[in-house]
Amino acid sequence: MDSWTLAGTTFLFVSALALFWWTIATTRRNRPDVAHHEAAPHQLYCNGPYRIVRHPFYLAYLLFWLGTALSAGAWQWLGALLFTVWYSWLAYQEERRFIQSDLGDIYADYQRKSWMLFPVPWLK
Predict the structure, then answer these.
(1) Tens digits of per-residue pLDDT, 60-76?
(2) In degrees rounded to 5, what are phi and psi of residue 115?
(3) At what angle do helices 74-99 and 56-72 cross, to 10 degrees?
(4) How far apart are the C-alpha atoms of 114 and 96, rounded to whole Å?
(5) Which residues have a Cβ under 8 Å from the Cβ of 43 and sit 6 or more positions away?
(6) Phi, psi at 53, each rounded to 5°
């Protein structure tokens, strides 16, 4: 592995770990519902990493899979792509439940102020 690949992999893994634990610390008092939970949401996080992205757990997982793909090579990129599609679909489903819930108006405003999965500053 060349030094650029090692640096990129290290950056992605450290970023994934930092984001994951930051999100854990933010949600420690009131844990969020588990993915695939079909009930209407009862709480909304807008602080900590949720100020930047609406789904920081998924982003942390994706950073891990991107780091894995960068370090392992060709076939792992397919896995990273599939996980990106999977987590995007889960996030979309969760957002749909938020919009249809009593928190719908608040969530719509929150959507305008944050990114779904990946921070893209030039799009806001």
Answers:
(1) 999 999 999 999 877 88
(2) -95, 155
(3) 170
(4) 16
(5) 30, 32
(6) -130, 150
Side chain identity at 73, as an amino acid letter? G
Q: What's the whole-number mean pLDDT along residues 95-119? A: 93
Burial of 123 (0-12, 13-18, 19+ CB in 10 A): exposed
- Supply 88's token pair: 């995007």
Q: For the CA atoms of 113, 18, 82, 107, what is the dihedral angle to 10 degrees? A: -20
What is the DSSP annotation of 60-81? HHHHHHHHHHHHH-HHHHHHHH
Fill in the amino acid letter for 54.
Answer: R
- The CA angle 32-34-35, to the nearest 5 degrees, is 120
The number of helices, as runs of H, and strands, as runs of E, in the chain is 4, 0
Digit-coded pLDDT (tens) for 80-89: 999 999 999 9
